[in-house]
Amino acid sequence: MDKKWLAACGLALTLVMTGCASRATEPSAPSGAEGEAQLKNQQQQQAGSLCEPGKEAWRAQGAPKRGGTIVRDQPDWSSLDPTTAGGRAYFGFGVYEYLVRSRACYFSDTTMIGNLAKSWQVSADGLTWTIKLQDNVKYQNKAPLNGRAFTSADVAWTFEYMTKETDLKSYWAAVTVETPDAQTVVLKMKDPDPDFIYKLGDERNIMLPREIKEQFGDFKRNAVGTGAFQLKSYTPDQEGIVERNPTYWNKGSDGQPLPYLDEVRGIVFADAAAEMAALRAGRGEHTHGEKIRKIDSDALKQGNPKNRYYADAAATIHGLWFNSKVAPFNDVRVRQALSLAIDRDDLIAADGGGGVYQGYVPQSLDTFAWPLEKVKEKFKVDQAKAKRLLEEAKFTQDKPFVFKTGTIYAQQLEVVAKQLELIGIKTKIEIAPAGASGPVIRSFDYDLAWGPPGGGRFADYWVGDLVRTGAGRNVSRYSDAKLDQMIDTQKKELDPVKRKVVVDQIQDYLYDLVPYVPSVGRVYYGVLACRIKNMTPNHQSTNYWGFEQAWVDPTGC
Fold it and tell me: What is the pLDDT of residues 451-486, one digit of tens each?
């Protein structure tokens, strides 16, 4: 492995999350202090103290116990297809696997380890990646795969499918895939990419079987993978159950086959109140997502102090989205007025606390994000100035703007709608039936939209395809030749210090031109029942491979 290359990659994306499933987090008042505390404590949560092999903070003492079922919430389960917009919530629980994935010894751990990839080598110029696959990996013994071997041909097919039929095409369109033998994959690129290791481990870049696509046409109702669990039953928008894969290839620290659990059952709760009731009654044992707020977490602690409570700063941005090519949003003064109208402190308070200001790079990507103090200074509310800018732009409105989001972000949208009304912008609120905002934002069926467009734990997600001319993720349709040139420069720069200079320049440029309006980010609160042991604290949107090594043991509860 080219160690200089890996060092550059590691430095280029150091995330700041401090919460661990094995440590309780004590939130503060709903003023944004909780989110800021999560960020500022980074230096006190050094990876070395949390991630020593065999002694990780999440690792339980004692021998693993086999058997049992874990019941948890499922944020959104209208489909099993992980490649669709918002699809990272649809993975199930360990049905699929990745080539590489985060070590996940603490939330937002960016050290990447092999999953289906046993090892990889990177050429000195960063243009060729040679990946060796794990030995003896088989698909689950379910039709139409029937336990066949996983090979390099599956990697090549997945990359081709991702390029042709998903919004990950920008990752792989310029990558050539070669398969010299069944256990070797060679990836060749025209330009170096300092974020490539993170794209390999992207939350949706799971290895898919071609037979499902060929027989059923898509991955919406059928799932067969190589993971520790296999699909047992699935009722859209209600419930899904996965059970132990008896032929799983990987083993635990005790040398015995994984997983230890019999089943994981996921339930889609209608709202936060229903989920809270289930957690209080013990009908839910694990949750981690958008529904539980700081105030909910505090209440649960009072009634169930032996459970483990943790927090995860989101690697995303809740923003205001529009088509920057059409009036009135093609006028930079109108876009600047929209940003000045938003009171971020009000948003954080109305959302129950635990939020944090966000600029054009999420605060959790601390290597590249503006310092929090700068973000708070830059994004101050100034409704008087916003009104003056609208007057200069001769802004008028014949009818209210259609303003959309998903159900999870409805409360935030209502707050923003009132803030926009204070500067003279009228809206008509429409809440889409989907929980997530990503599918709504990508539908383009609105005048204004609200929420996160998705999540990305590497810089190029935010200062690359989200604002590059013609890119699939560029939902604001923003186009600027100078910006594209800066994006190309940062995208190819392997020196993290030089790259940071360019990323800072891009953020300054975006701040002036406002291709969309960034606002805040959430701290996601999670609960893990006391009897669940040895589970890594990885985020819900990365397939919950933590269940792979978890077991059930009520000792101490």
Answer: 999 888 889 999 998 999 998 889 999 999 999 999
Number of domains in the chain: 2
Find the DSSP H helices in 311-465: 332-341, 344-350, 372-378, 383-392, 410-421, 438-443, 459-460
Closest CA to 283 of 39, 540, 529: 529
Q: Does residue 429 sit in the same domain as residue 535? A: no
Q: Indicate if 307 and 323 belong to the same structural domain.
A: no
pLDDT tens figures, 122-149 = 999 999 999 999 999 999 999 999 999 9
Question: pLDDT value at position 16?
Answer: 29
Distance CA 255, CA 267 (A): 32
Q: What is the pLDDT of residues 48-103, one digit of tens each?
A: 567 888 888 889 988 999 999 999 887 667 788 887 755 555 555 789 999 999 88
Query: Within this chain, do residues 513 and 529 fall inside the same structural domain, yes or no?
Result: no
User: Rounded to whole angstroms, how far apart are CA atoms 506 and 486?
Assistant: 7
3-state secondary structure of 196: helix
Q: State whether 324 and 213 are in the same domain.
A: no
Peptide bond connecting 75 to the previous residue in cis, omega within 30 degrees of 0:
no
Q: What's the CATH code of the domain at 429?
A: 3.10.105.10
Write out the H or E segment, with its range, that includes residue 211: helix 210-216
Q: What secondary structure, in 3-state letters, does 80-91 show?
A: CCCCCCCHHHHC
The reply to whether 360 and 445 lie within a common domain is yes
Give yes or no: residues 291 and 379 share one domain: no
Of the candidates 57, 21, 70, which has an alpha carbon nearest to the alpha carbon of residue 547? 70
Q: Which residue is it, tokens 């209502």?
A: 414
Looking at the structure, do residues 156 and 226 belong to the same domain, yes or no?
Answer: yes
Domain extent for 440 = 318-521
d(CA 424, CA 386): 10
Is 557 within the bounds of a domain? no
